């Protein structure tokens, strides 16, 4: 009879620990969920900043090129009136992909969950 009571006590302890572990897991999972949402928001914000920065940079280069073209046109009019200066073409690149190349992938491969070894008492 004592063995059965002792086994029931152990079972209750194990159930209690399992419940606590499940609650901790749920809490951590919820924190992870919010962290992932925050990361997505930050990625969007970064992409917006990069896009506007690149646009300003492109506009600055365009203005420089126009200034150089005007200077060049004045000189070229004297030399050769038939030639045209073609604008420099920039290849459109996704800022997100460019950042990924520099910093690595945004979402590395997910790690497989492994069972932890029980702690010795």
TrEMBL record:
Top-rank taxon: Eukaryota
Presence of keyword Coiled coil: yes
Composition skew (Basic residues), residue ranges: 110-121
Gene source species: Gulo gulo
Coiled coil: 4-31
Positions with biased composition (Basic and acidic residues): 85-104
Keywords: Coiled coil
Positions with biased composition (Acidic residues): 60-84
Chain residue ranges for the region called Disordered: 40-121
Statement: the UniProt record of this protein carries the keyword Chaperone: no
Protein name stated in the entry: Uncharacterized protein
């Amino acid at each position: 009879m004592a063995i059965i009571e002792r086994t029931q006590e152990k079972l209750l302890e194990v159930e209690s620990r399992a419940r606590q572990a499940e609650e901790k897991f749920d809490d951590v999972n919820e924190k992870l969920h919010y962290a992932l949402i925050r990361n997505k928001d930050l990625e969007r914000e970064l992409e917006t900043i990069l896009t506007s920065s690149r646009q300003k940079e492109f506009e600055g280069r365009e203005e420089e090129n126009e200034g150089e073209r005007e200077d060049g046109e004045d000189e070229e009019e004297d030399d050769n009136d038939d030639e045209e200066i073609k604008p420099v073409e920039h290849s459109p690149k996704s800022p997100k992909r460019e950042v990924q190349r520099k910093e690595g992938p945004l979402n590395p491969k997910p790690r497989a969950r492994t069972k932890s070894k029980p702690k010795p008492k």
